[in-house]
Every structure is written in C-alpha cells, then in structure tokens.
C-alpha cells in the first residue's frame, strides 16, 4: 500500500512538472520577461513609438501578461487628454518576437488603431488615433482686420458718468481676439483702449507675420503654417530698429503713435507686412489638443520642442536625455521645482526663468499644471469666427509679469516710459477692477 502511495505521489509530481514545462518552456519568452514598463527616454531606449507615423519620444507604455498569449497594454499620457489608456491585446508568436495588432475605443471615445511587436528588451508600437468627432476639427486662417461701429467706453452726456456704448472706427476683428469688461471708473476709457486698440492692433499686426493657418487635426495633433522670417514694425525689421539712432527711433515712435495710439492701422498695413514671407507646415508631434468640460486644452510636447529648437541652433542634442529630464520634472513637487528654477536663474542670469521663479505659489501651481495637463483655453464660434482664448483667471499669472517689463521700456528714451506708464502699467495697477479679459486667436475657416 505504501508503495502504491509513493508511486501516486511521483506520478502527480511528474504531471505537475510536465504541465509547467508545457506552460512556460514552449513559449518564446516567459510572462515575467515581457511584463514591464517600456520607455523611450531611458537608456538604452526600450520603446520605439510612432504616433500617426511620426516618432514620439518621452513616453512610456506598460505591458502585463500571465500566459504570453494575451495581455494588457497601458499607454501613459499618450492619447491626448488621457492619463492612462488600457486595453487587451492578443500576442502572436513569431520567430524572435511577439506581434500584435487591432483596434479599440478609449474611455474618452478616441479610436485607437495599434500594431507592434514585443521582446523583453524592446517594444515597437505604431498608433493611429482618431479623436471623437466634433465641430472644431478643421483648418483655420487668421481673421482679417475689419473696422466699424463697435463696443466702447463712452461718457453719458446727461450724467457725466462712464458707461458701455458704441463708437465708430472700432477694430471689430483682427488675428488677435480680445474682449473686456471692467468697473466704470475714471480711467475705464483708457484701460479699454489699451486692450481694444493698442494690444488688439499690435497682435493683429504681428500674428499674421508668424502664422498663416492653424489646424486641429483629427488625431489630436496641432499643426500650423508658420514662418521664422523676421518680424517688422512699419518699414523696419526688428533687427534694424536701433534706439541709439534718432532716425530709427523716430520711425518706431511714428508707427506706434500713428498706427496704434491714433488707431489708424489698416488691413493694407498687414498685407504689406506679410507680403513675400515664406510659410511652412510645422512638424507634427509638438503640440496636441483635447476637449474636456467644454474647454480646449493645448498640450505641449516639451522634449520635442526643446530638441527641435536646439537642433535648429546647430547644437547636438540627446533627445532621450531631454525627455528623461522633462519626465522627472513633471513628476516632481512643483514648489521644489520653483526653488530649483530660482537657483538656476541666478546662476544663468536668465530673466525669463527669474520671472517664473518669482511667481507666487498659486500662479506657479497654475503654470505647472499648464505644462503637465495642458493650457485650458475657451473656444467658441460667433458670427463665422472661431475664438480660442485665455480668460481672466488664466491670464492672471501673465499679468504678474508686467512690472518686469518696466526696465526694458525705460531703455527707450522718452517714448518708452510714457508707453509703460500710460498704457501697459495701468493694466497691472488696475487688475482688480478688470472683471473680464479675454485674449487669444480670432480665426475663420480656411477655404481649401
């Protein structure tokens, strides 16, 4: 009897071992070898990722499998607006890897077509994404400058009080969209003119020199027809403006006084400034969009932008290293990052970093969330125009930068201090009485 029992134990053990042999040893790679995080910023890179055919760096993908037959693929911050996108895939064993392909719909409604291969050392993943259908997916062009009777701060002839009304020769549309509301105080008229005439006029003049069109692609990319040709003010290019040269200085002052302060800027002025400029299509994968809670979020791919900028300056750049640093920054504590930026700005004597580091904690928290989650922008359609803009809440951290402009403005003899004290500084000084301020792009559908 004891002998039979021993034989039974041996048989069970043999069967168990044989089952394990069949489960694992017949596989190209064991589940534990494949179950890991694959990244395109670590060295050596373990993730070769393309999005709509374009290489995308600085991303990670998690894969988990229990049997090397099926598994769960998790895309980390790859589909615009989705922190994680998980779906099941089937593995097909090949000679030296496993392949997979298919189509799924994410929780946010994006259609994701995927194809790839995987080994314990690398994953190749090709994604083609279609965002949920909506009215904003199209190509837009900059709005032209038009004038007519429009909103203005006027003085009531009976009461002598300032109130909202209408005036002739107002800038109705331009490439820069603005709208404003404020308490009716003594300086309300000049504050409104600063935004509706000077800022809107300058933006309407400069933006078309930079951008010809903007496209919200169906895959979540944002592309544009842009130019790096030098900007100009009137007859002078920026590099030709010499504040030590009286003639050059006078040309600049004449342009700002006549065209902006006296409100005579015309569509012909913009045509003259944009004529002959060379526009090109921007690379894909540098900026993405998604909709959430009726807001349009613009998410920048910082590693891609930094790498492209450095390459454009002729500098050698390790894109994966930059992506790794950016990932570490985004996972860090925002207040520790603020302290670090302060130290770096002092050593580099960088004014922009210094301004960011000197933000109050609330403003910096907002700035940090813009980098991490995307810039929340209002989007609306009105009278055939699409407005994409920042509202007062989003602009508050930027308004805090205004005092930093004062030293630069004071460097322009006579005219600079007047421009700052009369038009720019009051925006900061009177921010509390400005109840609404919208700044952004004024676009129309492009005729293909």
TrEMBL record:
Pfam families: DUF4925. It comes from the Bacteria. This is DUF4925 domain-containing protein. The lineage of its organism: Bacteria, Pseudomonadati, Bacteroidota, Bacteroidia, Bacteroidales.
């Amino acid at each position: 009897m004891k002998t039979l029992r021993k034989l039974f134990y041996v048989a069970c053990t043999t069967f168990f071992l044989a089952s394990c042999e069949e489960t694992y040893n017949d596989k190209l790679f064991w589940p534990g070898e494949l179950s890991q995080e694959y990244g395109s910023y670590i060295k050596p890179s373990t993730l070769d990722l393309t999005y709509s055919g374009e290489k995308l760096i600085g991303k990670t993908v998690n894969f988990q499998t229990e049997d090397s037959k099926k598994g769960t693929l998790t895309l980390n911050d790859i589909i615009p607006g989705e922190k994680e996108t998980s779906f099941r895939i089937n593995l097909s064993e090949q000679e030296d890897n496993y392949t997979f392909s298919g189509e799924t719909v994410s929780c946010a409604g994006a259609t994701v077509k995927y194809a790839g291969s995987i080994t314990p050392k690398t994953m190749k993943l090709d994604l083609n994404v279609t965002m949920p259908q909506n009215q904003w997916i199209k190509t837009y062009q900059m709005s032209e400058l038009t004038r007519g009777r429009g909103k203005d701060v006027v003085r009531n002839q009976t009461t002598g009080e300032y109130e909202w009304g209408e005036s002739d020769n107002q800038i109705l549309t331009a490439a820069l969209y603005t709208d404003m509301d404020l308490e009716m105080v003594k300086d309300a008229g000049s504050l409104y003119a600063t935004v509706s005439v000077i800022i809107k006029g300058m933006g309407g003049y400069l933006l078309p020199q930079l951008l010809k069109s903007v496209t919200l692609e169906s895959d979540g990319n944002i592309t544009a027809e842009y130019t790096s040709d030098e900007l100009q003010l009137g007859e002078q290019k920026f590099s030709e403006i010499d504040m030590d040269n009286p003639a050059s200085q006078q040309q600049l002052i004449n342009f700002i006084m006549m065209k902006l302060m006296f409100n005579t800027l015309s569509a012909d002025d913009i045509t003259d400034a944009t004529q002959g400029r060379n526009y090109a299509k921007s690379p894909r994968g540098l900026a993405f969009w998604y909709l959430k809670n009726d807001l349009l979020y613009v998410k920048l791919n910082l590693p891609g932008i930094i790498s492209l900028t450095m390459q454009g300056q002729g500098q050698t750049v390790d894109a994966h290293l930059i992506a790794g640093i950016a990932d570490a920054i985004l996972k860090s504590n925002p207040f520790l990052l603020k302290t670090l930026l302060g130290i770096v700005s002092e050593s580099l004597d960088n004014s922009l970093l210094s301004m960011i580091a000197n933000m109050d904690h609330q403003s910096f928290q907002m700035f940090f969330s813009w980098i991490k989650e995307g810039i929340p922008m209002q989007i609306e359609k009105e009278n055939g125009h699409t407005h994409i803009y920042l509202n007062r809440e989003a602009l508050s951290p930027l308004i805090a930068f205004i005092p930093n402009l004062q030293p630069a403005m004071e460097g322009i003899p006579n005219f600079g201090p007047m421009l700052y004290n009369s038009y720019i500084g009051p925006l900061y000084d009177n921010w509390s009485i400005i109840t609404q301020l919208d700044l952004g792009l004024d676009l129309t559908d492009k005729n293909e």
